[in-house]
């Protein structure tokens, strides 16, 4: 049994203009100690899917799934109280904006110790000692002094280190990092990413890394899920994905990497992600897909098998060539 | 911190000068002077009128009167009441505890009900509770204090007979010398059985009436501030730690949401003291508000000027304290960030 197992996860928001499906049929398995990346552009539902796992979505969201288990427990069947015993302890999350994710009214030390106070049976002195140890672990100099600092006295990189320390406080089994480096300076991005990877390797914690940076994915993850417009369009081993993407969107995404650009023009994917109003009848990517057929435009695509990276496509690619398959529609 | 304090104190000086000028002029713009008001329809001979005016210094040029008044204020002299012939400061100090007691109870009523109501309305946004609280707050804010006071007296005192109609104490049943001037404390000190209960009973209606507008303002402010804060990333972080909703809302969110609310509470002290003028009149509450109203009808210039200056001074002082309190609860200001 994987540590985190998700089957057919969907999240629908009730909006004033009707229901909006932000996440549509996402599958994911994360084994203990594994590093899985979820990539996709903004609004592709990758953060929402993980917030659903944490149970942190607002009440306007409806979460459904065939299976949503963490560490053998059904997260959807759990009571709110039961879930609170797991999140923050076994399942922790790091957010995109470190500066605004720390409470400006409380010291860093208070916020780190608070998680331990809620979940662990430690004395006040032990919590303080562990907080110092954690700050050392995430590479913050003068940890004793920093514990009494307020968030506004820290830089973005320092704040994210504190957030990581907070996530590690109760020795979690899985950390979900939601674009942990996006809001940071490029030079700091590499440091924070290195830190996360080192901690992940040393402690053997599972890590789900949400990102839109393919470069980060290539360097870090063992497996990659690609999201598009709330759907999971492909899932593969990282090396396989970069070598032979099976979904046309993944292929287009990789072709759009600046490193792979040829000539003077940067390649891009024409069009925009469909919104609530202009959702295609068939495949959501069909309006932007080079290989789209009438079938693609009118019939929702089936999910392909493992040999095609579970691609959600009528004509998954093999070495860049679309493969026609029999469609039972 | 000290620099901040001194700067804030220095900033209040122009306010005082402007106030001094405005009160002096405004009081004199009211038709009739103290002597005319006192003689009324009986009339008075022009010689006697001139003599009285001379005695009170009212025959001197207006700018000279102002300079005398300003000079007195600078020396801490608020003048002597024309009617009672006692120093204005003494009268004020005797009456002020009654007003302070009432304003304090009204503010406690407003805070104790307003903040939880605002928090709950924000947490249960869009619910029936939210709509009820916000409609009630709007009504409370819009209601004329006079009408609301009379309505409560009619219902609570006349119809239900639960509370006394007016005054601070049952003077027939209890009598004791004022020690602190605060009826709640004096009644306890007096050892007379039931006196404290009577003091509380007298305070209930005036406190509700005076506290209604601040209550409405605080509830609305808390709600909007809380709604903003509840959407912040750090509230999500607190939830992600697996903390109880009570801790997330009551500690992480409320602590941040209170920052603007404290400012509003400070600003309400002005409203409270202004409202006290009406409330004290309705309930025959022997405080500075009622005294000011009486001073207006007597055209008691020194009492009016002095009373307004003293009340304004208190409002300015409270706002200064609130500014400092604000620094204490908001670490971002404390460290000059």
TrEMBL record, chain A:
Chief localisation class: membrane
Residues annotated as transmembrane: none
Membrane topology: Peripheral membrane protein
Protein localization: Cell inner membrane
Example of a GO MF term: ATP binding
UniProt keyword annotations, A-Z: ATP-binding, Cell membrane, Membrane, Nucleotide-binding, Transport
A Pfam family it matches: oligo_HPY
PANTHER family documented for this protein: DIPEPTIDE TRANSPORT ATP-BINDING PROTEIN DPPD, OLIGOPEPTIDE TRANSPORT ATP-BINDING PROTEIN APPD
UniProt protein name: ABC transporter ATP-binding protein
InterPro entries in the record: AAA+_ATPase (IPR003593), ABC_Ni/Peptide_Import (IPR050388), ABC_transporter-like_ATP-bd (IPR003439), ABC_transporter-like_CS (IPR017871), Oligopep_ABC_C (IPR013563), P-loop_NTPase (IPR027417)
Organism name: Ancylobacter moscoviensis
Domain ABC transporter: 6-254
Record family assignment: Belongs to the ABC transporter superfamily.
Automatic annotation (TrEMBL), chain B:
Chief location of this protein within or outside the cell: membrane
Mode of membrane association: Multi-pass membrane protein
Pfam families: BPD_transp_1, BPD_transp_1_N
A Gene Ontology cellular-component term: plasma membrane
Example GO molecular function: dipeptide transmembrane transporter activity
Record has Membrane as a keyword: yes
Family from the record: Belongs to the binding-protein-dependent transport system permease family.
Record-given protein name: Dipeptide transport system permease protein DppB
Species of origin: Starkeya nomas
Gene field: dppB_2
């Amino acid at each position: 049994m994987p540590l985190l197992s998700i089957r057919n996860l969907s999240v629908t928001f009730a909006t004033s203009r009707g229901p909006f499906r932000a996440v549509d049929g996402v599958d994911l398995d994360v084994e203990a100690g594994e590093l899985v990346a979820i990539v996709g552009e903004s609004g592709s539902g990758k953060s929402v899917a993980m917030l659903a796992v944490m149970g942190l979505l607002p009440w306007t969201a409806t979460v459904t799934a065939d299976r949503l288990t963490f560490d053998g427990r059904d997260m959807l069947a759990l009571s709110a109280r039961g879930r609170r015993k797991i999140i923050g302890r076994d399942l922790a999350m790091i957010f995109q904006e470190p500066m605004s994710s720390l409470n400006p009214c409380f010291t860093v030390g208070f916020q780190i110790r608070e998680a331990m106070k809620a979940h662990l049976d430690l004395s006040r002195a032990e919590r303080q000692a562990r907080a110092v140890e954690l700050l050392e672990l995430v590479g913050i100099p003068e940890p004793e002094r920093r514990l009494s600092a307020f968030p506004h006295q820290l830089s973005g990189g320092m704040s994210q280190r504190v957030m990581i320390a907070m996530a590690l406080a109760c020795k979690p089994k899985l950390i979900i990092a939601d674009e942990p480096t996006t809001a940071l300076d490029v030079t700091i991005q590499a440091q924070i990413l290195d830190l996360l990877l080192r901690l992940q390797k040393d402690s053997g914690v599972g890590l789900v890394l949400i990102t839109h940076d393919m470069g980060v994915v290539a360097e870090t993850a063992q497996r990659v899920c690609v999201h598009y417009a709330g759907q999971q369009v492909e899932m593969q081993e990282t090396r396989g994905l970069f070598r032979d993407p099976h979904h046309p969107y993944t292929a287009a995404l990789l072709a759009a990497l600046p490193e792979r650009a040829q000539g003077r023009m940067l390649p891009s994917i024409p069009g925009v992600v469909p919104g609530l109003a202009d959702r295609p009848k068939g495949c959501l990517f069909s309006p932007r897909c080079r290989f789209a057929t009438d079938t693609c435009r009118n019939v929702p695509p089936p999910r392909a098998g493992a040999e095609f990276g579970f691609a959600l496509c009528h004509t998954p690619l093999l070495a860049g060539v679309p493969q026609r398959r029999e469609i039972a529609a | 911190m000290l620099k901040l304090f001194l700067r804030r104190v220095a900033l209040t000086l122009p306010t005082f000068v402007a106030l001094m000028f405005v009160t002096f002029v405004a009081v004199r713009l009211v038709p009739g002077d103290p002597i005319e008001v006192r003689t009324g329809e009986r009339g008075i001979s022009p010689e006697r009128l001139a003599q009285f005016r001379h005695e009170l210094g009212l025959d001197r040029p207006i700018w000279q009167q102002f300079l005398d008044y300003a000079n007195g204020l600078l020396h801490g002299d608020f003048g002597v009441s024309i009617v009672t012939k006692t120093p204005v400061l003494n009268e004020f100090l005797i009456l002020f505890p009654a007003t302070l007691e009432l304003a304090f109870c009204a503010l406690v009523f407003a805070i104790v009900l307003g903040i939880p109501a605002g928090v709950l309305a924000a947490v249960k946004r869009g619910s029936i509770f939210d709509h009820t609280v916000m409609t009630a707050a709007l009504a409370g804010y819009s209601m004329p204090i006079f009408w609301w006071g009379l309505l409560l007296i009619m219902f609570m005192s006349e119809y239900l007979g639960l509370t006394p109609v007016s005054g601070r104490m049952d003077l027939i049943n209890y009598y004791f010398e004022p020690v602190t001037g605060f009826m709640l404390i004096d009644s306890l000190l007096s050892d007379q059985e039931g006196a404290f209960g009577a003091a509380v009973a007298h305070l209930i209606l005036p406190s509700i009436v005076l506290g209604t507008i601040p209550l409405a303002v605080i509830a609305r402010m808390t709600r909007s501030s809380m709604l903003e804060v509840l959407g912040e990333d750090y509230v999500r972080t607190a939830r992600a730690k697996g903390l109880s909703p009570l801790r997330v809302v009551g500690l992480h969110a409320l602590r941040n949401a209170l920052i603007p609310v404290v400012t509003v509470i400070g600003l309400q002290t002005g409203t409270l003291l202004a409202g006290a003028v009406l409330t004290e009149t309705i309930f025959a509450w022997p405080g500075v508000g009622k005294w000011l109203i009486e001073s207006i009808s007597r055209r008691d210039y020194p009492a009016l000027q002095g009373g307004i200056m003293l009340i304004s001074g208190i409002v300015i002082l409270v706002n200064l304290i609130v500014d400092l309190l604000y620094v204490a609860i908001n670490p971002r200001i404390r460290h000059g960030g």
